[in-house]
Amino acid sequence: MTNPLNFRKLSNNLANICGIQGHFGETFRILSEILAARESKNDIRHAGFLAQLAYTSEALTNYKQANYEEALLLYSEYGLPERIKETKYMLSNAVRRSGNPKRAREILNEAHREWSEGDRDWTGFDAYYEGLDAFDNGDLSKARRDFSTTLVYPDHNLNSISAHAYLLEIDRREGLLTLEKVEKFIDRLDAFNQDSVLHTDAEPKRPLYRELVARGWFAERFGPFTQPLPGNTITPKRFVLEVQTLGSFHCGLEQTHIKFPFAKAAELLIWLILHGPATREKIIDALWDGSSDPKHIEYGKLALRRLRTSLAEHLPFNPLVYADHKYQLAAELEVKLDARELLEAFETTDLNARHKALEQYSSTFLPGVHSEWAEYMRTRLQDAAFSTAVGLGKLYEPSDAALALWAYRKAVELEPLELDAHQALVQLLQRSGDEVGARLAYQKYTRVLKAEYGEVPTFTFNELLRSTKINHLN
């Protein structure tokens, strides 16, 4: 049997080889398998794999900023300033190309403020990512200055090759492209001895490669990069997470039951499904009802870790991502939450969907959880179900007395003290010729009222039948 450590080392080497050869789709697959197989999800090497996976995704024009964010969090926990700065620069590019230029600029400013700290000279690295920002924002003059600075400080071969290619693309756009300039780029490329690096961040530069091929300038060198490599695409698989919250809690992934050793981790999962991305502070505030007790803050951190590890045992990716200072479930997860689906059905105009939802609603939402957010959800479900029951009763009453009686009985079961539901039931039973049933329904309301408040109704059975003004009876 292969030693797991050797397997991961060999897989990592294979991923590096595939990346050098430009087979980024295969690199992405191998790195994803490595991350899924690793037992530790909270160490420095795991952060490195996350960052490597994010960088590979950029070659596939699929900017995985969440992986950079997660790596950054781990580097921060272990106090690695060099890795933090490097990751911030790369994160800024991923965030901008994912459609958030303002946030990208903020991250780049953070990295820029920190780059002078330490022994390493970050001038070239900083200039490269400043150049990317300027290029993407259409400021070609600034991009030219920044990319030129990168070439003066070639502390990162990939960055210097990419910067040189961007300079040629700027020349192409401005009508300044010459064979002599391209030959200098070829010299730099030959020094690195791997043309496949041109696949990295290739999309913005493909017009350049096509232009060079069209002019017959080193067409055999640039021809392979005018189009993406076959297979260099990501088709993410969707994983369906089914969560049951009505009655007993259950969480399953493709027929596999997921266990949570820490109850708050399960509660956190449901809260995130319902409320979406949130900061750690907001999560702790919700799950511990606004407590600022340091003990609860530590419990919150533990709940986040336990949730991630419990889900990660069954998934080939990080299920709880940290992006823009917020925690959220990974986009690859498709979540089916029974309570949310019922609420949506109660609020729809589809009569069949509302009827089916009312049939299914028979248990309490998370009966063992007493946080304010859970109490609010229970009340919301109960109110929606009651309104649906009364509404269906009124809709059914003119044409189907049996269905109307079912709906009114459901309403009485949900809210035993709501007089309007009792009256609707008593009156319909009377009109249907069931005098005994009508009187039994009235007596049931009388018993409930006495048990709850120690009182009896101030109106008689006959008054209840005749009255159309419930408030008057009350």
Short description:
By secondary structure, this protein is mainly alpha-helical.
Plain-language structure description:
With 474 residues, the chain is mainly α. The chain has 3 domains: 4-225, Serine Threonine Protein Phosphatase 5, Tetratricopeptide repeat; 241-337, Winged helix-like DNA-binding domain superfamily/Winged helix DNA-binding domain (Arc Repressor Mutant, subunit A), CATH 1.10.10; 338-473, Serine Threonine Protein Phosphatase 5, Tetratricopeptide repeat, CATH 1.25.40. It has helices at 4-20, 24-37, 44-59, 65-78, 81-97, 101-114, 123-136, 140-152, 157-173, 179-192, 206-215, 219-222, 263-275, 280-287, 294-312, 338-346, 351-360, 372-396, 401-414, 419-431, 435-453, 461-466, 470-473, and strands at 239-244, 250-253, 256-257, 320-323, 326-329, 333-337. A 4-stranded mixed sheet has the order 3-2-1-6. A two-stranded antiparallel ribbon has the order 4-5. Helix 3 (44-59) runs antiparallel to helix 4 (65-78), helix 13 (263-275) packs across helix 15 and helix 20 (419-431) runs antiparallel to helix 21 (435-453). The radius of gyration is 32 Å and the shape is elongated. Mean pLDDT is 79; it is low at 1-25, 38-44, 46-66 and 469-474.
